[in-house]
Amino acid sequence: MKIQLPAACKLLILTLLFSVLQLGSQAQTNSSFKVLVVASADPDHDPMISASKAFFEKIASENNFTVDFTRDATLINDNNLANYKVIVQLHLAPFDMTHEQQIAMEHFISGGRGWVGVHAAGLTGKQFISPETPYWQWFEKLMGGIIYSPHPSKQAGKIVVEDRTYPVMRNLPPEFTFYDEWYEWDKSPRPNVHVLATADELSYKPEKPMGDHPLIWTNPEYDRAVYIGIGHDISACTDANFAVLMRDAILWAA
Fold first, then answer.
1. DSSP 178
2. Under CATH, which number does the domain 32-253 receive?
3. Which residue from 7, 12, 113, 122 has the highest number of Cβ atoms inside 10 Å of its Cβ?
4. Predicted local confidence at residue 5, as pLDDT
């Protein structure tokens, strides 16, 4: 027996089907991407790193991506990194990686995928390695051709946002106070990078004033690479501005 549905029922069924198709399409459009956070095994950064796992997981859950958090640098290899759209190098210094891991990271970034380097990821320079150990010159270039120099003791100071139109910075105030180590380098990377924010050296006591003191920047030679020089102290994981900065840096990198 053939059942004849009223026109109103047919219209309702078609509307429901269309809604389901729309939801499926939207879910596909907004599909989650994967982020690998590789944190340092150095105990100097233990407090912040221990707190940051929940910090990154919260950002991920609120912004429709998934995060794998590890302190195992052996996961930095071409096969494993193929599963991720963004890698966060959390306090993992370049000299803490083997040559093979360095090359895998280089492949990842050069291939146009996202990289967010945080604080100790910027420890460039041959002073950290033995004379017979090959120096990762490519990474120094990624960082703008600068060499790390000693930093002052942890203290509060001001960060001045230089480019508020940039996606990584647009949700931050023009300046904000932060408690950190205030990394310094042998010179400003400005000629080789796009500076997003600088340290206000008058707001704290530097070890050796740089004058022009960038702290957050991108490298125009690579599509999705951003370095964030702050984040040493555990207080970063409860700092609202740092959360916004890391969220927008990851979303931009993706």
1. E
2. 3.40.50.880
3. 122
4. 53
